[in-house]
Each structure stands twice: as structure tokens, then as C-alpha cells.
Amino acid sequence: MLRRSLMARIAGCLAIALAACPARAAEPGRDAEPAGKGRFPDFGFLPQGYAGRIFKLSQDYPAAPPDRAAIPRFFGLDFRGDWVEGYLRTGWKSYMQELRRYCFEGNVEADWRVEENGVRRWYHMPWQHYGPIGREGIRGMTKEAEVKKYQLASTQTFSGGQTYAVAYYNEFAAYTIGKVWKDHEHPDLRGAEFPRGSVICKLLFVDVPTEQVPSLVDPILWQGYICDNFASNNRSVRPLALIQMDVMVRDDRTPTGWLFGTYQYNGMMKRPNRWDNLVPVGVQWGNDEDNRRDHYHTRCPERTEIVATIRESVINEDRDELPATHLGWNGRLNGPVDNPRSSCMSCHATAQYPIKSEMAPFFERNPPSPGDERWMRWFKNYKCTSKGGGPFDEGSHPADFCIQLVQGIDNFHRWWDERGGIFASEYGAQGTLERPQPTRDRPETDRSERNDLGLQPKPLSDAPRDRPATKPRP
Ligand code: HEC
Description:
It is built from 5 helices and 10 strands.
């Protein structure tokens, strides 16, 4: 393999992959500006002859940090509201309500063509277009995970469903993207420090027959250029239904510096503006690092099980509002298309490059037992970069909880690697190659070998972005 042989020949360049490589000297001919240089590609897939509106990557990232006055108003609210341990109340919902309003403002009106938001700018993460699960060209959605039979409701007998998603970054968060990707050929994670005020919002859509899921009545449908099913790479333009909206907020008041929240679509609310049918599932401000006694189960969701011993997530207890859903491990926050043995924070805390650990313990080649010392490494309150947090593994660089940042850099390096060929000028005086090198230190493993939870083997050989799918047990 090219990657391996290059690695062998130029061992030692690994450490300089994170932009420490000196810029190449300009050379006549070779460094002529290719068309569009300075712009990142917008998407990876669009059918021949498609005449509808297409996705544009919002990529004019702010060069300076935004003014503090632009910090969203909901930062003044207490995200816990009047929540007290063992006694759930609804105060936290005001925070979620305001946070939702902020994400919607101007974006709903612009039909989520966020570069046209008339109130404030929002942006996208570059380098999500590459590879078989990369961005499609209608909405910019990437292929994420499989939706298992019974995952969304006991009536959902359809299998082979899939999730597609697209994330949007406010100007605080986008400033960080711009810093990391300032040099388009040398992404530099040393700039990965999201400032207070950063908000990232992600819409998730499913390809399942909506009539099988009561909460997907009166759905919000988007057309996407999507695969026939999760296992397929053959695409066509088809509708998907909104199921979930995820948010990440950089707020100094939480133990880690990040707050996670999610909303689930419930068409039974029959709200006049269908976007308002996104009801809050909950908020997670910590990872409950002491909660380790495993009482996980993935029954097909007939009721939402709120676990009283979880202290750093609050979950919506209004059963009329929130459709029955599974949560994360031991009741930590997770959404309907997330893995029940994980949590928002536990996956996101692994964001680092080189990628040295899996996003969840059960994906490790030699998985730990639920609740043991090694398992609990995924359930700690790691700090964000501004609070002095380091990488999940020694010798890596933290990406400040942002997984798309990691995947973008990984995709970039794959592309660089796969295009093959070496420029003579890339060889320095010592015979070392001065270019970004693949930096996946962990061996490539066959994901089917790690299939400990009855999770389906991944059909795509290169699917780092996939969220593990849940397997509800009927
Ligand atoms: C199993 C791991 C996993 C879990 C659990 C998980 N995520 Fe993510 N998340 C990902 C991956 C992988 C991506 C990047 C893929 C993409 O969006 O294209 C991502 C992307 C995101 C993004 C876009 C910014 C970023 O970091 O890339 C947001 C916002 C987000 N997730 C929020 C949440 C919230 C809120 C929850 C819990 C309700 C959650 N996530 C649970 C794996 C996970």
C-alpha cells in the first residue's frame, strides 16, 4: 500500500504532520494556482443533470474573533434551570427554547442555506466531501449511521434505514475553523480552541418510512442525493425526514467547558411551524464520571427511562412531548439515532488527531467491560482546550471536542495520500518528505471483528465518520 510504504520510507515525518512541515518553496510551473485555489470543495456527490438548488459550503470564515457583544443571549440563562437532583423540573427548558431560537433565527427563513442568513452568518466544516460517505450536493449532508429495525419506534419494522446529517457553525466556532485551516494544505490543530460563545448545530435526517414511526407524522422532508440503503453506495435523489437536532455550546460554566443538547422531532405536537415540533430531549453538562454500575439495556423504546442517579444530564420527563426513546449509557444524554452505550460527551471528548482511540469503548479492538477502569476513560469530564484540556491519548493533539474537525483533517490526509506521486521538491536536504503524512497511528482494523454488541459490520471499508448504530432488542 502506498500509505504503508511511504510511512516506512519517511518515518519521522509523522510528528510534523500538524502543519509543522515547512511550507514548500514556490517553484515555477508546479505552484501555478489551480482554479478555485483558496476555496474548499463544496460537496462530493451530485447526479448528472440535477437542476435544483445545490449546496454551497459557507467558508468565508471570520479572520478575527467576533465581538463579545455577539455572544448569544441564552448564555445569560441557567442551563440547569430549577433542576435539582432527584427532582426534575422544567426550568432547563427555557434554556433549550432560547438555544433553539438562536439556531433557527434566520436559518429557517433561509431554508438552512446558512450563507444567506439575514440575521447572522453561519458556516460549514470543510473536507467533509471526501470518500464514499462524503457530502451530497443538495443539502451538504454526510452519511452517518444505520437505523436499525425498531430503533425509532416499536412499529418501525423497516431495516436498512440510514441517517444523514449536516452541521452549522456560528461565527465564534467558525473563527476556529478558519484558524485551523488557514493554510489549506497544512491544517493546524494547534488553533483548535473554540472560544466561549461557539455554537454548533447539527440536523439529522432518516431514511425510513415515516408511516412506521408515529412521531414522524407531518414530517419535515428534505431531498438528498443518498444511497439506496445503508449498505449501498448507489445513490439517487430521495426524501429524508428530520429526526433530531444536536447542539454543542462552548460555555465556561460547565465542568468541561462544553454543553450538549438535543431535540427530537415529534409531529404529534402539531405546531403550526413544523420546526417547532423539535422538542428537547435533554441537556448534558458533564459525563457523570462516578456513575459506573452498568444498567444499560437497549430495548425497543416503549418508554423513556430517566435514571435518577445521573446528575449531569437532565432529560425531558414530559411523556406527551418527548416520544419514547432510548438515551445514552446509564441514562446519560443521547439522541434517538445515537448509540445507547455512549453519550454525547463521551464520543466527543475523543476528538483528537492522530486518531488513537475509538469514539466509544466497545469499538476498541479489545473492548473493556462496561464500568471498568478502562471503560470509564470515555466517561470523564475532560476539559475543553481553553480550560487547559489535552488530548484523549498521549501523543495526539486535541480537537476540542469537534469530531468533524478531526474527520476533515483525516479526509484531507487520505486524499493527499491517495492521489499518489511525490514531487521531487518535497524531498528536503536530508531526504525527508515535507508534506502532510497520514497520521493514523492505530492499525486499520476490520470493523466486523469488533462487532461485540451485535452491531452490523460496517459495509464501507473507509467509514470513519459513521456513528455506531444502535441495536434495539425487541
Ligand atoms: C457514537 C459517537 C457519537 C455520539 C454518541 C454523538 N456524536 Fe456528535 N458526532 C459524532 C461524529 C462522528 C460526528 C461527525 C460526523 C458528522 O456530523 O458529519 C459528530 C458531529 C457532531 C456535531 C458537529 C460538530 C462536531 O463535533 O463534529 C455536533 C454539534 C454533535 N455531533 C452533537 C452531538 C450531540 C448533542 C450528541 C448527543 C445527543 C452527540 N453528538 C452524540 C459522533 C457522536
